[in-house]
Amino acid sequence: RPRRPGTRTMLPLLLLLLATAHSLADKQYVPTLATSPLGGLKTTSTFVLEQPRCAFTKVQSDAVIWLVVAIPKAVANFSNSVGPGTPERAFQGFPTSTQAYMTLNTTLRNYPCPKPPGETTVLRVGSETSCATDKMRPTCNGPLLSPGPYRVKFLALNGSKPVAETAWSKPITLKTALPSSSIPATGGGRSTGMIALTSILSILFAVLLAGLVAMLFFWGSHARGSSTFSKPEAVTVRRYNTHHVYNQPAARL
């Protein structure tokens, strides 16, 4: 049976689409929290991830790797075709009008594989405060406003075309700051407000006491310095009459 004229032209396109789908479906790498002993892996507004080393071994070295941060309900319907910097992926609208944003873009050259021994390879999510409200920087790595949970993945783009991605992480929940009213009373039933007021009054009393001591010391030094100067004695200069010396023999003439 003769083939249709468009069959030969469609075959390479189908192979390209299959290769792209296979690349995007290769999701063996799962982003994880860092295991660095530096501490502070999760705070009230940030968390630290391991860099995706050796996660994109089949893409070109000039591909750009993006971090996607999303709320859990956005994972099922997330579209890789919506690129970074668009209103649908802007940090400033997250998580109210934007359910996922893209940030921390870098080339694959900055994620060499294998990792050099002894090198700390982590990414802190939420560390930029200067651009948190700047709509001109929609890819800002701004602080997270709630404890979450959040899920993240890495997405590789060649231009605006998605070429590879990782799996989504497990839910990441940040620490929660305790309000002052929930802190239990200490010191024999005294509240934290009373302890703070007592501390302030103690500091003020110490400052006043130090000022009083300094003033007394100054006055004492001034009094001792004044007693060392006595009234100078009057200097009396005696007056002498000059006796002229006469030539006695000549005077008798």
Automatic annotation (TrEMBL):
Signal peptide stretch: 1-25
InterPro entries attached to this UniProt entry: Uroplakin-3
Record keywords, A-Z: Membrane, Signal, Transmembrane, Transmembrane helix
Any one annotated GO CC term: membrane
Highest taxon of the lineage: Eukaryota
Keyword flag Transmembrane: yes
Keyword Transmembrane helix: yes
Record field: transmembrane: 194-219
Name recorded for this polypeptide: Uroplakin-3b-like protein 1
Native source species: Spheniscus mendiculus
